[in-house]
Specification:
homodimer, 336 residues, alpha/beta, Rossmann fold, 6-stranded mixed beta sheet, 12 helices, 12 strands, elongated, DNA-binding
DNA sequence: GCATATTTTGGAAACGATTCCAATTTCCTT
DNA sequence: AAGGAAATTGGAATCGTTTCCAAAATATGC
């Protein structure tokens, strides 16, 4: 069933059918009604390939996720997907694995899928820096600030990781903690890991504390297993610490386990703070203190920035959305 | 940069360029080399819209996920995505929300995206039964057996939920448990919930046990919060039970919390068994006993079935992939 | 009712690829 | 070296839309 068939069926010309389908003015009520009825009856669906070929200008939006296991990104994707539903922007999603370079892939997909813009869910500044000559379309990097890059069509939406980590550690210091241990991603390859770590160090320095080099820090994956391994490693170094900063809630779950295996109590012996505020944190034993990433707000904002750039040519913006610290049971005053 | 430009640039005709691009035989090495070089140099990318329009036969594969929060499905999607990479099948992913009807949506997307086949990650038999006149393309339903439907282009890949639940409960009975409580999804709307529940009842009946109607069962969402609410509700009914069967690990986490809030120990007072065997289960305190769903195997198998149907016209198959029960610390002998 | 302005309609060209047929070139064979 | 078979190439037709221009129909003003 093509537009031509519809034309034949209704006695109108293809041009008229097309106009009806695209809500052009200048088509009589009679024709519109007749054609719409025929569409309804035949279950006609436009061939998007033909449409997009003709209006050679791009129409779709691309979302590129780093890894598919990340629940936060999955949630953001869902928000984006839902928001785009029923708009004139088809959505293409692509997942990057391991060491794939997001920028290079983006470039390929932009041409291939004829994209108007890209949202990167995850991704490292480094790759953008070295490979980002020009994507040719507006882009938004989520979860990382791209302000330092100064590209004028790359926006970013993020929480201020630096401040979040600092405030979290400040709160722990206020509870009497002096000895901190940290586990997170590789600071060289993961920008968010580096920023969070800097926040930790900054808070400690401001309080006149220094971080024991032996406890600073364990590099692991953002997973329960990573958290477990990292905590075990720190524990084996046999230095006293009363507070453990982990860079994700999933890591924190692994950390809980490792501490338990060493007969250490949370928060009695060690306070643990996570990051992300996954819904599961509220139900853990003990309930997990965490840095809340407002996924829905971040997703909405990133899409707004992108559409604004696409539709109105807005220039790149860099927005830190507000985060909150959620204090629960896994952190507490240090034992005397 | 179009194929025509390439032709002009290299002095060959568009037909020849197209043949090179598609690895047709019958093109001289000289031409191939020259054209490939020009492609390389110009960064030419094929316009997929034009390509797919012309080869009006469909080319892409569609994956439809029920909800985006499900980690198992996300993992399966990643496997499928990776497997399809570099093949001639572009992949389209769509997420369904809440009460969306997967079959109706599939039908629309198949036309729109020109799909050769569909994989449904999640989805209820009921919808297929009532709405599935004919999708027109092969499809695979994952996580549910569609055998009973008898459609000859709808395959399915699943674990035998019935048997898994039964075996799990048998094992618990062998540990001395007699009083079971169950929480899961709505048995009317969620096929897997019904099947798992039937497995539980069957095991109990076979052992001469009956399930206390008051403990059978709480209907909740497959989330930590659902597990928490459901367990609280059962606890409030004030009937003794020593084993709790939850239909997902996430639920089990919520159950842990609810039991803790009632000062009940796991497994001392109540044994808890989850479902899915998420990676997080191994690190919980106590480590969670669970039914393992082999996500990678299921994903691979579903794709194979689909491609086999697409490429070789294979008829629908219904495959139960082997599951395993993973016994950890959250289940134990019943206290005397 | 007639000339003119306006709205509606028909139909051809174009988007960028594939594919088929015919034309050309190359390669064998004798 | 000539003839025919095989390999390679050129170029037109085509996919299903949109969009533009011209033609037809309708509305408006006097």
């Amino acid at each position: 069933m093509t537009i031509k068939d519809l034309a034949a069926k209704t006695g109108y010309a293809v041009g008229t059918v097309s106009r009806v389908l695209n809500n052009h003015p200048n088509v009589s009520e009679k024709a519109r009604a007749a054609i719409l009825a025929a569409v309804e009856e035949s279950g006609f669906q436009l061939n998007q390939n033909a449409k997009q070929l003709k209006q050679s200008h791009a129409t779709s939006i691309l979302v590129i996720l780093k890894g598919s296991g990340n629940i936060l990104f999955a949630e953001m994707l869902e928000v984006i997907q839902t928001s785009l539903h029923g708009t004139r922007y088809p959505l293409h999603v692509d997942y990057l694995h391991g060491a794939d370079n997001e920028v290079r892939r983006a470039r390929q997909l932009i041409r291939e899928k004829n994209a108007l813009g890209v949202i990167f869910l995850g991704g490292n500044l480094e790759n953008f820096q070295s490979d980002f000559a020009d994507l040719g379309v507006p882009a938004v990097l989520v979860t990382n600030s791209a302000e330092s890059l100064g590209f004028d069509n790359l926006s970013s939406v993020y929480i201020d990781d630096h401040a979040a980590a600092r405030q979290a550690v400040e709160a722990l210091i206020a509870m009497g903690h002096k000895n901190f241990a940290v586990i997170g991603g590789h600071r060289l390859y993961s920008d968010i890991s580096r920023m969070r770590w800097e926040g930790v160090v900054e808070a400690m320095t401001a309080a006149g504390l220094t971080i024991d080099p032996e406890l600073d820090y364990a590099t692991v994956y953002f997973s329960p297993d990573g958290g477990y391994q990292g905590t075990m490693e720190l524990l084996q170094r046999d230095r006293h610490f009363t507070a453990l900063f982990t860079m994700s809630d999933l890591m924190a779950i692994g950390a809980f386990r490792a501490l338990e295996d060493h007969n250490l109590e949370v928060p009695g012996d060690v306070s643990v703070i996570g990051y992300d505020n996954l819904s599961v944190g509220e139900f853990l034993i003990p309930r997990l203190t965490s840095v809340d990433q407002p996924t829905e707000a971040m997703a909405r904002r990133s899409l707004q920035l992108l559409l604004d750039a696409i539709e109105n040519g807005a220039t790149a913006k860099h927005e830190a959305v507000p985060f909150t610290l959620v204090f629960r049971e896994s952190t507490g005053k240090v034992k005397e």
